[in-house]
Write a structure and sequence with these properties.
about 140 residues; 5 helices; extended; mainly alpha
């Protein structure tokens, strides 16, 4: 796709050249979000959950507080133990090498020596190995 270069946000909001389009976009975005909320609210209110509650009530009891927690984490940040993560990364890389070798040995046992040469980064090779010969339920290929 083409790369679209937009002016800075402040310019979009204040420059008369862009202001009308900015207001129209913002209003459309807000109205569309509200319409989507109303539609989903009605659907969820009509879907049973547990103990006489519906899914809209579930949303208010659990998902809204969880969303607030996530936005708080994003705004404030969280402490990350980078030294620990670096150690875990080293171990994870070692584990990956071992797991790839184990998988390839297993694949070789299933399809012969070609299993040892399989490129596990190739979705085509993995798909062929795991699903080869099976028809695609959607396309019948």
């Amino acid at each position: 796709g083409a790369l679209v270069d937009l002016p800075p946000m402040e310019r979009l909001q204040r420059d008369p050249k862009y202001r009308h389009d900015w207001i129209m976009y913002s209003a459309f975005d807000a109205k569309s979000t509200y319409n989507l909320y109303q539609h989903l609210k009605e659907k969820l209110a009509n879907m049973a959950w547990i103990d006489g509650y519906n899914l809209m009530e579930y949303y208010h009891m659990h998902m809204r507080p969880f969303g607030a927690l996530l936005t708080d984490l994003e705004r404030r940040g969280i402490l990350v133990a980078t030294d620990y993560l670096a150690d875990v990364e080293v171990q994870a890389r070692k584990d990956r090498v071992e797991h790839v070798a184990t998988f390839k040995r297993w694949a070789a046992g299933e399809i012969g020596p070609d299993g040892l040469a399989m490129n596990l980064a190739s979705s085509v090779q993995l798909s062929t190995f795991l699903f080869g010969g099976a028809a695609n339920a959607k396309t019948q290929e």
